[in-house]
Each structure stands twice: as structure tokens, then as C-alpha cells.
Amino acid sequence: MKFKIGSELLLLFFLTFHCIASSNLALEQQAAAGNRSTDAFDQQVEHLELRDESIFTAISKLSQSVDVAFSIEGILLPKQEIQPPPDPKFSATIQGKTLKEVLDWLCAMDPRYTWRRDGNTTNFFPSAKLDDKLYFLNRKIPLIMLHEAKDAGDAVFAALQQLPEPKAHLIFLQAGGSLRFAKLWTETMSDLTVRQAFNRIAQELGPTFGWQIGGTQSSPIIMFHYRLGSPSSRE
Amino acid sequence: MGGQPQRVLRLLRADNLLCLRRRAYVFDARLENRLGAGFQGEYWSIEGDNNTFVTVKNITPKAATCGIALHYNQGGSTYEMPPLTLQPGEARVINLKRLQKEKIADAKGAVLPATVTFGGLKLTEEAGGRHFLMEATVFNPRTGTCGVCGFGCLYPLSLVTVPGGIDLLIAQQSGDITVNANMCDGTVQTGWGCQCNFSSKDTTVATVEALCIQHATGVGVGSTSLLGTATGIPGPRCGEQTLLTSCSVSVRPKVQITGGNNFVFSGSDSTLIQFNAQQAQGSPSGGVYSWSASNNRVSFDNSSAAIVHLTGISPSTGLLDTTLTVNYSLNQQSASPASRSITVRIFKFLQQSGQIQVIQLNGPNVFGYDANVFYNVFTNPGGQIVSPGYSGIPVFESVTITSGNFPVSLTQASGATDQNSQIVDQLSLRSNMPLDPSLQVKANQDLGVGGFFVRNNTLLYQASGPSITNNGPFN
Questions:
Q1: Where are the alpha helices (DSSP H) in B230-311?
Q2: B94 contacts: CB under 8 Å, gap ≥ 6
Q3: Whose CB has fewer CB within 10 Å in chain B, the N or C terminal residue?
Q4: How far apart, in Å, are the Cα atoms of B372 and each of A176, A205, B377, B427, B428?
Q5: Angle at B7 between CA B6 and CA B13, to 5 degrees
Q6: Among A3, A176, A212, beta carbon nearest to B425
Q7: ipTM score for this prediction
Q8: Residues with Cβ < 8 Å from B102, sequence gap 6 or more?
């Protein structure tokens, strides 16, 4: 995606972690006193509209506006050369529902995916993998001992190293930003799935940090993010 | 009493005082001619304050010579002046008291004794006479004046300080404060400071030295006056008088801009606003500050504070095109404003600093590499580098993985400038197995600083290492 460079004033945009001005987004949080649970997943989503967009576009918009982490596992292809089919697009609107209800609504539209909550993290993964015990992200790590891990990559490979056989191959990709922990991380965790371990690693970076799995079946790639999508709008 | 027919003026024992305005002779009505009866000549007296001026004028068309003799001791002694030759129309004035005081010898080499105080005066001429007009006037300057600025008795009408008013800072000493006198004849005399004793009306505001040339020193903020009193100075009727004068003094506070840079960053990020601090210090403390800017490029969080944090609203079009001014007032006195010119800088572009630092990871547990790319941050106007010391400025990145089969291709990363004000961008490709040599991942990266887009890169990850294509902006 290329961006054109406009005038300096048009390039002026500010980081906000809670809302994006977008006619397509139309996402508003209603904070009615006495009408709102403290659980982030119970917060009201005033309005969410899809205009010939995939559910991942909607998830990106949600990621920009709520302080919930979103992690998505792609449907991995056998080889890199194979082009993935385009994601199904939808035009639909939902309003006045909780975040939980909106996520259910999205997965109902695109049943390829399902979602599960893990603390402050929403995990989207292929529905077909829900009960696949061999799917490496479903596999359990009995004991994870982290010793002075400096960044997310350190922690990922330390956790995978403690995955019982067969080991899982994973590539860690970082394209800028900082994935360093605020301080060296020493932690012991037990009986977590690989997915849950990755969630813990992301949450150690911050409450909105999540991850994605892309790549191929033989070379899956994990990439952590601060948020999905972007607040930028360049002409 | 007889006399020369050409007498100009002769008035003795007048019933009334005759007072003339400017440079006129004045007469003491109490003067008494002590010449003996029958003396043929004029009376002269230099007794006490008396003096006699003898004026002789040649009224003929050619030079003429006369002789003037002073008779004293009841005519028993004579002081004969040397012959006096005057040209046509020439007049000569002879100060008799001076003859005695300066012991000027007569034609015979004798002086007018100091004990001699009066006598008669005669003028002798060449044959034919009528060559001269003569006037011998006795006067007493001390008692003869009658309230008019006149001959031998100049007195001041008023005293004025120079300058008339002073502005000082605390502990500051003024320049010279001198005193001029407006004299009764319309002239102005300087140097009357020695005649004045000065004091400060309020020594908590200012003090003054009691010297011929005065100096005031500021003590505390406020206004007061320095009062000068001159006693026993010449006054009307050749008497004495006391005159007053005053000099106003204002002691003002001062203010300086003591902290902050000659620039601020554009943007509303809280980190930037903290860097945009400006500090003023007023002296003495306890006053009220008031900040302002010469344009609308900046706003102040609290324009009445000593320390203000500016928000850069719009970037400068030229260096130092915005002037900050701070006023300070205390006890109703205002300091001279302090000002500083600043530039409102906007983050504009990056330049890679040095080579990409690639740290190869060769197992046994992790393979691949970590690569650190260092960027210097530049601002406009002027393409100025952000110097070290501005760490923590938010850096955001939007990354679009153009190949990699990620469900969401566009993601957002976050970071901040380091202590060198640089962006250190980490590009990593790690694996728990040796990387496939054919592995390639492409990404498009937008970088922003403080909320402003500054760089677009095309990233290519390969097993051997990353490559970066800079797509600008470049300046």
C-alpha cells in the first residue's frame, strides 16, 4: 500500500488510541453511566458498518477503538506460491450491541473463523482448528519457564522450546516498533496452550498488543502488533 | 555739591529707592555724602559694602587725556591715577575698590591705603575742557537691591534635578543626579548639587547618597521621591533663602526568560508539550507573569505562570518567526518585558544514520537476524536535525505486509525516540529452524514522529538480511 505525500498540514494527524474519524467506521462507544459493565467485552458498540469489507477490516477498526487485544490466526497454505483465496466481503450493519455480541456477529457472517476470549485478548482462529489437538497453537506446554527474556521474540522461542515433541516451527517477524519488555521478564507459567502463551507474551508488552499468524503451513510466521489497522490517513 | 556739567546720573539721599530691572545700578537711600562743604568734586566711598565706579567718556572727535585724583584724609592726601588717554567715543570704567584691594599704584607709585574709605574725586582735563563726561556712582550691592535680580546679586529662583525622574532595578545604582538652578536673570547654572542635601522619602524603595553628585540605589519595588534641600543660598535682596527640589524614583522589578529552547515542536502529544516548556524568572518574586506570542502558531497552557508549556499549533514558515514575550509586574510596577524568538518546528523527514546493524543469529535455538536501523529526525523549516536529548517522543509505525498471508495486512507498531533523539527501528527475522533461503517477506512501512508522517519504506526480508528502500520524504 503506497501513500502519497500531501501538504504538511494535511499530513498532520495525531495518535489516538480510542477512536478514528472515518465515515466507513462509524464506530462509537456509548459510555452511559450505570449502564456499562466494567468488563471490556460488555462495552457497547454503538454502530459498526461493513461496506463490502471482510470481517478482518471490522476487527481492525475495533482494535483501533477499544483497549482489547486482538490476535488472529490465518488459514495457512501449504506453500508460499499458492495465492490465498480472497476473504469474503460483507455489507452489513450492527448497532447498540456489546463487543461480545459484535464478535459473535462477525463470526456468524464469516464462519471460517471463530473466536475465543483469553483474559483481555480476543483470539480469532480457523473454525476448522477448534478441536484440532495437533494444531500447534492448540497444543499445551506443561511448563514455561522464562528467564530474563528481553523481547517478544525471546519469549516466543523460549516457550516453543519447552513445547513437548514434536517441536513446532515458527518464524518471528518484526517490522519496526518496539517489542522489548519494559524490564527483563522472568516468569513461570504452566499448562498453557501455545495460543495462551503467545497471549501472555503480548499482554506483557501492553494491553492492546496482539499477534497474527501468517505464512505457510511449513513456515508459519508470527508477527506482534500494537494494534491492528492504523489511525493514519494519507492521501 | 558742585559737579561736572556732563553728569549722567546723580542721585543721592533719595527719598525712594530706585530699582531697575536688569544690570542697573541700584542705590542705597541711606548713603551719605561725607565730603566737606566747599569741596569741588565728586564723592567716592568704598566703606564696608560700598563701592564706587567712575565712568569717563571722551565725547570729542579726537583723542583726549585726563587725570583723575582721589582725595582723602580731609584732602590731606591724594591718589593720582596715571593720565588716561581715551580715543573718540571711548569710555572707561574704574572700580575704586579694586584699586585699593589689588594695591594698584598711582602715578607716583603709591597705593590707596587700606584704611581709606572715602573722599573726593576730581577730574582734570586738557586746556579747554569739555572733552569728557564723567560719572562717579557710589552704591551698596548688599543693601541696595530691592527684590530684583540685579548687578552683583544673582540668585536662583528654583532648583531642578537632572534627570527629573529615574527608573531603577533593585540593587541598581543610578547615574549622576545633578542639580541645575534657574537663575533670576533667566540663565541656568549647573553644579548646584553641592548646595543640596538629599534624602529619600521612602528608603524601602530607594536610597540616595549625600554627595555633591547624587546617586540613587533601588531597594524595593515601588515609587518614591528624592528630596533635595538647599539652605543658606543667595536669595532676593541679596539675602539668603532655602529652596527645595525633588527627583522621582521608580524601582521596577525585572524579568528574564531563563529556561527553554528557541524552538517548540508542533503537535499536541503530551511528550512534545513537555519539551516545549519556557521559563521566566521575575525579581523580586511574588509578582504576576503574563506570556504572549506574536502570532497564533503557539498556545500556552497557563499564560500567567512562570513556567509555561506551549502547544505548537502551526509550524513556522521561517526560522525564529515567532516571538514570545513575558511581562512581569509587582506592587503595581511593571518590569521591562523579556522576549525570545522561537521557531515552531514540525517533524518532516528521516535520514538513516550509519549502516544497518545486523546481528546474525546462528542457533542452536534461534536462527536468522536482528537488524537495527538508526534514523535521525529532521524538522522544518530549515531541515534541522533534532539534537540529542528528546527521548520518548512517540514513534508510530504502520506496516502493511504485502506478502505473508496475514489476515490483517495493516498493523500498527509503537515506539519512541531514544536519548539521542533517534528512531531505532528493529527489523527481525528469527526462526527456531534455519531459514529457508528462498524465504521473502515484503512490507510497506510508514513511520511517524510526534504524530507526523516522516517516512515511507519498502522492506524486504530475506534469509540473508533485510533491505530498505526509502520512498521519502527526503527533505
A1: 270-275
A2: B53, B54, B55, B56, B68, B81
A3: C
A4: 9, 19, 16, 6, 8
A5: 160
A6: A176
A7: 0.83
A8: none
A229·B410 Cβ contact <8 A: yes
Q: Torsion angle of alpha carbons A110, A113, A116, A122, nearest 10°?
A: -80
Residue type, A81: E
Interface check for B15 against chain A (CB to CB < 8 A): the answer is no
Which is it for the CA torsion A28, A34, A38, A42, positive or negative?
A: negative
Give me B150's grid cell: 540685579
Give the SS3 label for residue B219.
Answer: coil
* Residue from A225, A227, A234 to probe the interface with B (highest B Cβ count within 10 Å): A225
d(CA A212, CA A224) in angstroms, rounded, equals 6
All three cell numbers of B17, joined, read: 529707592
Q: Name the CA radius of gyration of chain A, rounded.
A: 19
Is any Cβ of chain B less than 8 angstroms from the Cβ of A142?
A: no
Q: What pTM, to 2 d.p., does this model score?
A: 0.67
pLDDT tens digits, chain A, 235 residues: what are they? 333 334 444 444 444 434 343 434 444 444 333 444 589 999 999 999 999 999 999 999 999 989 999 999 999 888 766 777 889 999 999 999 999 999 999 999 999 999 999 999 999 999 999 999 999 999 999 999 999 999 999 999 999 999 999 999 999 999 988 899 999 999 999 999 999 999 999 999 999 999 999 988 888 999 999 999 877 533 2
Residue type, B360: Q
Which string of DSSP letters, residue by residue, matches B149-185? -BTTB--EEEEEEESSEEEEEBTPBP--BEEEEEETT
What A148-152 contacts at long range (C-beta under 8 Å, 24+ apart), as own/partner pairs, is: A148/A184, A148/A185, A148/A186, A149/A181, A149/A184, A149/A185, A149/A186, A150/A180, A150/A181, A150/A184, A150/A185, A151/A179, A151/A180, A151/A181, A152/A179, A152/A181, A152/A201, A152/A202, A152/A204, A152/A205, A152/A224
Q: Are B12 and B50 in contact (CB under 8 A)?
A: no
B408/A9 CB distance under 8 A: no
